[in-house]
């Protein structure tokens, strides 16, 4: 191995180790607020569980982190996904939105799930349990359509 | 070598992981009823029912923006629609809410927030999704006009075939049907449901 190869690998190694020490902000609020979607709508338990396990990692203040989130730069990528997801929809604070905004958000949720755009494919690679079966998807869409109608 | 790097970095990272809470506060807003529309029955076709409103010039840019978006979708032009959506989102902050009666302000603010968000999504979506947002915002847009008035006559048009037969509405500056929800696929599907005019 040439000298500069060794230097390059050495530097890379130091960089990889170094970035592990940069503290990251974790999206883990312990208190569930009254504005929380599941808390305020009280959906049937299986619907609530579906929403919790398929949506809450990126669309709430309560992410359940996988072990590899502690490995950088993977953790940073996850953090990006989470803040992007929360800026579109934060189910922990759903109750704080105006009725009008809720209507719009629920419309978008329905359309994203119906078109299989959510949950994200990349998310399902590592979270196969988050994928909806055909029956689950229908159940969930039916439920969301119902609260949309009640909301009007 | 690689395995070594990964295992070392993994074990170090477990030690290093920080922990802090993050909690964003979003603005909460109140809900208000509105009932300032005045409907007049009109049986002469094809202009549908009539709704007359206060004339209001400050809404001009928003209506222009909405109609630019509509034209882009009529022409199946996703890129132009994205630009129009972006522009509409920016225009929502140009309306001075304080010039309206206090009881109306909260609702106008909420409508503008929703329109802004629709516009932002249209700016970054493909055309089917742009159309969903456009159709979704039409109701909000009409409610905005009911609150603040209009600067021109507009026609609410409706195509029963949109969204798997659930139907969809849009606003147009002319009575002629040019369908933005289907574009060239079904350009003339629709009819005038309501005429929104100045008092």
Short description:
With 152 residues, chain A is mostly helical. Chain A has 7 helices and no strands. Chain A has one domain.
Structural description of this entry:
The complex is a heterodimer of chains A (152) and B (199). The relative contact order of chain A is 0.13. Chain A has one domain (26-151). Chain A is mostly helical and 152 residues long. Chain A is built from seven helices and no strands. By secondary structure, chain B is an alpha+beta fold. Chain B has one domain (39-198). Chain B contains six helices and five strands. In chain B, strands 1-2-5-3-4 form a five-stranded mixed sheet. In chain B, helix 2 packs antiparallel against helix 3 (78-91), helix 3 packs antiparallel against helix 4 and helix 4 runs antiparallel to helix 5. The longest helix of chain B is centred in the middle third of the chain and has 22 residues, at 102-123. Chain B is globular, with a radius of gyration of 22 Å. Classes of the chains: A mainly alpha (152), B alpha+beta (199). Chain A binds chain B through residues 9, 12-13, 16-17, 20-21, 23-30, 61, 70-72, 75, 86, 90, 93, 96-101, 104, 107-108, 111, and chain B through 1, 5-6, 8-10, 12-14, 16-31, 110-111, 113-114, 117-118, 121, 129, 132, 136, 140.
Q: Look at the helices and sheets of chain B and give the structural class.
A: alpha+beta
SSE class of chain A: mainly alpha
Total number of helical segments of chain A?
A: 7
Q: Report the major sheet of chain B.
A: 5 strands, mixed
Shape of chain B: globular
